[in-house]
Protein backbone atom coordinates (compact mmCIF):
# COMPACT_ATOMS: atom_id res chain seq x y z
CA UNK A 1 0.00 0.00 0.00
CA UNK A 2 1.42 3.37 -1.01
CA UNK A 3 1.77 5.90 1.74
CA UNK A 4 -0.57 8.39 0.12
CA UNK A 5 -3.36 5.85 -0.27
CA UNK A 6 -3.94 6.07 3.47
CA UNK A 7 -7.04 8.16 3.72
CA UNK A 8 -6.58 11.43 5.52
CA UNK A 9 -9.90 10.67 7.21
CA UNK A 10 -8.16 7.84 9.03
CA UNK A 11 -5.65 10.28 10.42
CA UNK A 12 -6.51 13.21 12.50
CA UNK A 13 -6.10 16.33 10.42
CA UNK A 14 -3.60 18.02 12.56
CA UNK A 15 -0.03 19.14 12.53
CA UNK A 16 1.22 15.66 13.35
CA UNK A 17 -0.58 14.28 10.31
CA UNK A 18 0.98 16.97 8.10
CA UNK A 19 4.39 16.16 9.51
CA UNK A 20 3.94 12.46 8.75
CA UNK A 21 2.71 13.13 5.21
CA UNK A 22 5.56 15.53 4.48
CA UNK A 23 8.15 13.13 5.89
CA UNK A 24 6.79 10.20 3.87
CA UNK A 25 6.63 12.39 0.76
CA UNK A 26 10.27 13.45 1.22
CA UNK A 27 11.33 9.81 1.57
CA UNK A 28 9.41 8.92 -1.58
CA UNK A 29 11.00 11.88 -3.38
CA UNK A 30 14.53 10.85 -2.60
CA UNK A 31 13.96 7.23 -3.47
CA UNK A 32 11.67 7.47 -6.50
CA UNK A 33 11.67 11.07 -7.71
CA UNK A 34 8.80 13.52 -7.99
CA UNK A 35 6.82 11.51 -10.55
CA UNK A 36 6.16 8.75 -8.02
CA UNK A 37 6.05 10.81 -4.89
CA UNK A 38 3.52 13.46 -5.81
CA UNK A 39 0.13 12.95 -4.24
CA UNK A 40 -1.07 16.41 -5.26
CA UNK A 41 -4.01 15.12 -7.26
CA UNK A 42 -5.27 13.46 -4.08
CA UNK A 43 -5.47 16.77 -2.29
CA UNK A 44 -8.03 18.70 -4.27
CA UNK A 45 -9.78 19.70 -1.09
CA UNK A 46 -9.13 23.42 -0.48
CA UNK A 47 -8.60 22.61 3.20
CA UNK A 48 -5.46 20.81 2.14
CA UNK A 49 -4.11 23.68 0.06
CA UNK A 50 -1.44 24.40 2.63
CA UNK A 51 -0.23 20.83 2.60
CA UNK A 52 -0.29 20.72 -1.22
CA UNK A 53 1.77 23.92 -1.33
CA UNK A 54 4.34 22.43 1.04
CA UNK A 55 4.53 19.24 -1.02
CA UNK A 56 5.15 21.28 -4.17
CA UNK A 57 7.80 23.29 -2.37
CA UNK A 58 9.53 20.10 -1.20
CA UNK A 59 9.63 18.93 -4.83
CA UNK A 60 11.20 22.24 -5.89
CA UNK A 61 13.80 21.98 -3.14
CA UNK A 62 14.64 18.43 -4.16
CA UNK A 63 15.11 19.51 -7.79
CA UNK A 64 17.18 22.53 -6.83
CA UNK A 65 19.65 20.48 -4.80
CA UNK A 66 21.13 17.78 -7.01
CA UNK A 67 24.42 16.22 -5.92
CA UNK A 68 27.45 18.12 -7.17
CA UNK A 69 30.42 16.40 -8.75
CA UNK A 70 33.87 17.03 -7.38
CA UNK A 71 37.03 16.97 -9.41
CA UNK A 72 38.85 13.68 -9.58
CA UNK A 73 42.18 15.49 -9.36
CA UNK A 74 41.10 17.08 -6.07
CA UNK A 75 39.96 13.74 -4.64
CA UNK A 76 43.23 12.06 -5.60
CA UNK A 77 45.36 14.93 -4.33
CA UNK A 78 43.61 15.12 -0.97
CA UNK A 79 43.83 11.36 -0.58
CA UNK A 80 47.55 11.51 -1.24
CA UNK A 81 47.99 14.32 1.29
CA UNK A 82 46.03 12.41 3.93
CA UNK A 83 47.88 9.16 3.41
CA UNK A 84 51.31 10.74 3.22
CA UNK A 85 50.97 13.42 5.88
CA UNK A 86 53.10 13.16 8.97
CA UNK A 87 50.93 11.45 11.55
CA UNK A 88 52.71 13.23 14.39
CA UNK A 89 51.64 16.58 12.96
CA UNK A 90 48.00 15.64 12.97
CA UNK A 91 47.85 13.93 16.34
CA UNK A 92 46.77 15.83 19.39
CA UNK A 93 49.30 16.29 22.17
CA UNK A 94 47.34 14.02 24.49
CA UNK A 95 47.26 11.21 21.93
CA UNK A 96 50.96 11.61 21.28
CA UNK A 97 51.62 11.24 25.00
CA UNK A 98 49.41 8.16 25.15
CA UNK A 99 51.35 6.62 22.30
CA UNK A 100 54.67 6.86 24.16
CA UNK A 101 56.09 3.64 25.69
CA UNK A 102 54.81 2.96 29.26
CA UNK A 103 58.26 3.52 30.81
CA UNK A 104 58.55 6.91 29.10
CA UNK A 105 55.04 7.80 30.26
CA UNK A 106 55.99 6.78 33.84
CA UNK A 107 59.21 8.81 33.69
CA UNK A 108 57.31 11.82 32.33
CA UNK A 109 54.71 11.41 35.10
CA UNK A 110 57.36 11.26 37.84
CA UNK A 111 59.22 14.20 36.31
CA UNK A 112 56.01 16.24 36.07
CA UNK A 113 55.03 15.43 39.66
CA UNK A 114 58.53 16.35 40.95
CA UNK A 115 58.49 19.62 39.08
CA UNK A 116 55.02 20.48 40.42
CA UNK A 117 56.05 19.58 43.97
CA UNK A 118 59.19 21.77 43.63
CA UNK A 119 57.14 24.74 42.47
CA UNK A 120 54.68 24.25 45.34
CA UNK A 121 57.50 24.06 47.94
CA UNK A 122 59.16 27.19 46.57
CA UNK A 123 55.86 29.08 46.57
CA UNK A 124 55.08 27.95 50.15
CA UNK A 125 58.54 28.96 51.33
CA UNK A 126 58.26 32.43 49.88
CA UNK A 127 54.87 32.88 51.58
CA UNK A 128 56.39 31.81 54.92
CA UNK A 129 59.34 34.16 54.35
CA UNK A 130 57.01 37.11 53.78
CA UNK A 131 54.98 36.26 56.89
CA UNK A 132 58.17 35.84 58.96
CA UNK A 133 59.62 39.17 57.86
CA UNK A 134 56.33 40.92 58.73
CA UNK A 135 56.26 39.30 62.16
CA UNK A 136 59.90 40.31 62.70
CA UNK A 137 59.17 43.92 61.69
CA UNK A 138 56.23 44.10 64.12
CA UNK A 139 58.39 42.74 66.95
CA UNK A 140 61.12 45.29 66.27
CA UNK A 141 58.57 48.17 66.15
CA UNK A 142 57.01 47.05 69.43
CA UNK B 1 38.38 2.89 -5.61
CA UNK B 2 39.03 -0.62 -4.45
CA UNK B 3 41.65 -1.27 -1.86
CA UNK B 4 42.35 -4.80 -0.87
CA UNK B 5 45.18 -6.93 0.32
CA UNK B 6 46.55 -4.07 2.38
CA UNK B 7 48.38 -4.59 5.64
CA UNK B 8 48.22 -8.25 6.70
CA UNK B 9 46.04 -8.99 3.68
CA UNK B 10 43.26 -6.72 4.92
CA UNK B 11 40.38 -6.40 2.50
CA UNK B 12 39.37 -2.80 3.13
CA UNK B 13 36.63 -2.58 0.52
CA UNK B 14 34.74 -5.50 2.04
CA UNK B 15 34.79 -4.13 5.59
CA UNK B 16 32.17 -2.13 7.36
CA UNK B 17 32.91 1.32 8.74
CA UNK B 18 33.43 0.16 12.31
CA UNK B 19 36.15 -2.30 11.37
CA UNK B 20 37.82 0.32 9.19
CA UNK B 21 37.72 2.87 11.99
CA UNK B 22 39.37 0.36 14.35
CA UNK B 23 42.12 -0.25 11.81
CA UNK B 24 42.42 3.40 10.82
CA UNK B 25 43.79 4.27 14.25
CA UNK B 26 47.16 3.02 13.04
CA UNK B 27 46.61 2.12 9.41
CA UNK B 28 46.43 4.95 6.87
CA UNK B 29 45.11 2.71 4.09
CA UNK B 30 42.06 1.94 6.21
CA UNK B 31 41.54 5.65 6.66
CA UNK B 32 41.95 6.03 2.91
CA UNK B 33 39.04 3.65 2.35
CA UNK B 34 36.86 5.64 4.76
CA UNK B 35 37.89 8.78 2.89
CA UNK B 36 36.89 7.23 -0.45
CA UNK B 37 33.49 6.27 0.94
CA UNK B 38 32.62 9.68 2.34
CA UNK B 39 34.52 12.37 0.48
CA UNK B 40 31.74 13.03 -2.06
CA UNK B 41 29.05 13.19 0.62
CA UNK B 42 31.03 15.54 2.86
CA UNK B 43 31.94 17.69 -0.13
CA UNK B 44 28.28 17.97 -1.16
CA UNK B 45 27.26 18.87 2.36
CA UNK B 46 29.92 21.55 2.63
CA UNK B 47 29.25 22.84 -0.87
CA UNK B 48 25.58 23.52 -0.19
CA UNK B 49 26.47 25.19 3.11
CA UNK B 50 29.14 27.47 1.63
CA UNK B 51 27.90 28.00 -1.91
CA UNK B 52 31.19 27.74 -3.75
CA UNK B 53 33.59 25.05 -4.83
CA UNK B 54 36.77 26.68 -3.58
CA UNK B 55 35.64 26.93 0.03
CA UNK B 56 33.99 23.51 -0.23
CA UNK B 57 37.33 21.97 -1.25
CA UNK B 58 39.19 23.77 1.51
CA UNK B 59 36.68 22.81 4.21
CA UNK B 60 36.40 19.22 3.00
CA UNK B 61 40.13 18.77 3.39
CA UNK B 62 39.99 20.30 6.87
CA UNK B 63 37.21 17.88 7.82
CA UNK B 64 39.25 14.85 6.80
CA UNK B 65 42.47 16.08 8.42
CA UNK B 66 40.50 16.69 11.60
CA UNK B 67 38.96 13.23 11.35
CA UNK B 68 42.43 11.71 10.83
CA UNK B 69 43.78 13.53 13.87
CA UNK B 70 40.91 12.46 16.11
CA UNK B 71 39.98 9.04 14.81
CA UNK B 72 41.77 7.54 17.82
CA UNK B 73 39.16 9.19 20.05
CA UNK B 74 36.20 7.85 18.08
CA UNK B 75 34.24 5.34 20.08
CA UNK B 76 31.09 3.68 18.87
CA UNK B 77 28.32 4.90 21.13
CA UNK B 78 25.54 4.16 18.70
CA UNK B 79 26.47 7.14 16.52
CA UNK B 80 27.66 5.92 13.10
CA UNK B 81 31.00 7.04 11.73
CA UNK B 82 29.21 8.99 8.98
CA UNK B 83 27.29 11.00 11.61
CA UNK B 84 30.58 11.73 13.40
CA UNK B 85 32.05 13.03 10.13
CA UNK B 86 28.99 15.18 9.41
CA UNK B 87 29.30 16.69 12.87
CA UNK B 88 32.92 17.61 12.17
CA UNK B 89 31.81 19.11 8.85
CA UNK B 90 29.00 21.02 10.56
CA UNK B 91 31.46 22.49 13.08
CA UNK B 92 33.95 23.42 10.37
CA UNK B 93 31.21 25.19 8.38
CA UNK B 94 30.00 26.98 11.52
CA UNK B 95 33.57 28.20 12.19
CA UNK B 96 33.86 29.28 8.57
CA UNK B 97 30.65 31.33 8.79
CA UNK B 98 31.75 32.80 12.10
CA UNK B 99 35.13 33.80 10.67
CA UNK B 100 33.52 35.42 7.68
CA UNK B 101 30.94 37.14 9.81
CA UNK B 102 28.24 36.85 7.21
CA UNK B 103 26.47 34.21 5.21
CA UNK B 104 27.39 34.09 1.57
CA UNK B 105 24.80 33.74 -1.14
CA UNK B 106 25.13 31.03 -3.75
CA UNK B 107 26.23 32.73 -6.95
CA UNK B 108 24.25 31.24 -9.83
CA UNK B 109 27.30 31.13 -12.09
CA UNK B 110 29.04 29.14 -9.44
CA UNK B 111 26.25 26.65 -9.23
CA UNK B 112 27.55 24.26 -11.85
CA UNK B 113 25.79 21.00 -11.29
CA UNK B 114 27.22 17.92 -12.86
CA UNK B 115 24.89 15.07 -12.27
CA UNK B 116 22.31 12.93 -13.93
CA UNK B 117 19.59 14.73 -12.00
CA UNK B 118 20.59 18.02 -13.55
CA UNK B 119 19.93 16.64 -17.02
CA UNK B 120 16.53 15.23 -16.15
CA UNK B 121 13.65 16.94 -18.02
CA UNK B 122 11.86 17.92 -14.85
CA UNK B 123 14.91 19.90 -13.76
CA UNK B 124 14.27 22.32 -16.58
CA UNK B 125 10.87 23.16 -15.08
CA UNK B 126 12.55 25.20 -12.39
CA UNK B 127 14.06 28.13 -14.20
CA UNK B 128 17.54 29.37 -13.33
CA UNK B 129 16.20 32.49 -11.61
CA UNK B 130 13.68 30.59 -9.57
CA UNK B 131 16.30 28.06 -8.57
CA UNK B 132 18.73 30.78 -7.52
CA UNK B 133 16.02 32.50 -5.47
CA UNK B 134 15.09 29.24 -3.82
CA UNK B 135 18.71 28.39 -3.00
CA UNK B 136 19.21 31.88 -1.66
CA UNK B 137 16.17 31.51 0.59
CA UNK B 138 17.43 28.13 1.78
CA UNK B 139 20.79 29.66 2.64
CA UNK B 140 19.07 32.36 4.66
CA UNK B 141 17.44 29.74 6.89
CA UNK B 142 18.97 29.00 10.30
CA UNK B 143 21.89 26.63 10.10
CA UNK B 144 20.10 23.55 11.47
CA UNK B 145 17.30 23.91 8.90
CA UNK B 146 19.80 24.16 6.05
CA UNK B 147 21.54 21.13 7.47
CA UNK B 148 18.28 19.18 7.51
CA UNK B 149 17.42 20.00 3.88
CA UNK B 150 20.92 19.08 2.70
CA UNK B 151 20.99 15.82 4.62
CA UNK B 152 17.57 14.90 3.27
CA UNK B 153 17.68 16.01 -0.35
CA UNK B 154 21.39 16.01 -1.21
CA UNK B 155 22.61 13.19 0.98
CA UNK B 156 19.37 11.18 0.86
CA UNK B 157 19.54 10.22 4.52
CA UNK B 158 16.60 8.72 6.36
CA UNK B 159 15.06 10.62 9.27
CA UNK B 160 16.73 8.20 11.68
CA UNK B 161 20.14 8.90 10.12
CA UNK B 162 19.50 12.64 10.18
CA UNK B 163 18.50 12.29 13.82
CA UNK B 164 21.84 10.61 14.56
CA UNK B 165 23.75 13.48 12.92
CA UNK B 166 21.69 16.22 14.52
CA UNK B 167 21.26 14.50 17.86
CA UNK B 168 17.46 14.56 17.63
CA UNK B 169 14.70 12.00 17.64
CA UNK B 170 12.98 11.01 14.39
CA UNK B 171 9.86 12.82 15.55
CA UNK B 172 11.84 15.98 16.15
CA UNK B 173 13.37 15.70 12.68
CA UNK B 174 9.89 15.40 11.08
CA UNK B 175 8.68 18.36 13.05
CA UNK B 176 11.74 20.42 12.10
CA UNK B 177 11.23 19.52 8.43
CA UNK B 178 7.62 20.74 8.59
CA UNK B 179 8.64 24.01 10.22
CA UNK B 180 11.47 24.42 7.72
CA UNK B 181 9.11 24.14 4.76
CA UNK B 182 6.67 26.58 6.38
CA UNK B 183 9.49 29.07 6.99
CA UNK B 184 10.82 28.65 3.47
CA UNK B 185 7.40 29.17 1.94
CA UNK B 186 6.92 32.27 4.10
CA UNK B 187 10.26 33.67 3.01
CA UNK B 188 9.55 33.02 -0.68
CA UNK B 189 6.10 34.62 -0.42
CA UNK B 190 7.60 37.63 1.33
CA UNK B 191 10.19 37.98 -1.38
CA UNK B 192 7.59 37.62 -4.11
CA UNK B 193 5.35 40.30 -2.60
CA UNK B 194 8.35 42.60 -2.13
CA UNK B 195 9.18 42.03 -5.80
CA UNK B 196 5.61 42.92 -6.84
CA UNK B 197 5.66 46.09 -4.73
CA UNK B 198 8.98 47.25 -6.17
Note the topology.
The complex is a heterodimer of chains A (142) and B (198).
Chain A: H1 15-32, H2 34-37, H3 49-64, H4 72-84, H5 87-90, H6 93-98, H7 102-141
Helix pairs in contact in A: 1-3
Chain B: H1 17-24, H2 28-50, H3 53-70, H4 81-100, H5 116-119, H6 128-139, H7 143-154, H8 159-166, H9 170-197
Helix pairs in contact in B: 1-2, 2-3, 2-4, 2-7, 3-4, 4-8, 8-9
CATH architectural group of chain B: Orthogonal Bundle
Radius of gyration of chain B: 19 Å
Mean pLDDT of chain B: 84
Number of domains of chain A: 2
SS elements, strand count of chain B: 0
User: Radius of gyration of chain A, Cα only, in angstroms?
Assistant: 36 Å
Figure out the total of helices of chain A. 7
SS-derived structural category of chain B: mainly alpha
Structure at a glance:
The complex is a heterodimer of chains A (142) and B (198). Chain A is mainly alpha-helical.
Question: What does this protein look like?
Answer:
The complex is a heterodimer of chains A (142) and B (198). With 142 residues, chain A is mainly alpha-helical. Chain A folds into two domains: 3-64; 88-141. Chain A contains seven helices and no strands. Chain A has helices at 15-32, 34-37, 49-64, 72-84, 87-90, 93-98, 102-141. Chain B has 198 residues and is mainly α. Helices cover 67% and strands 0% of the residues of chain B. Chain B has helices spanning 17-24, 28-50, 53-70, 81-100, 116-119, 128-139, 143-154, 159-166, 170-197. In chain B, helix 1 packs across helix 2 (28-50) and helix 2 (28-50) crosses helix 7. The termini of chain B are far apart. Mean pLDDT of chain B is 84; it is low at 104-126. The interface between A and B is large, with 42 and 58 residues.
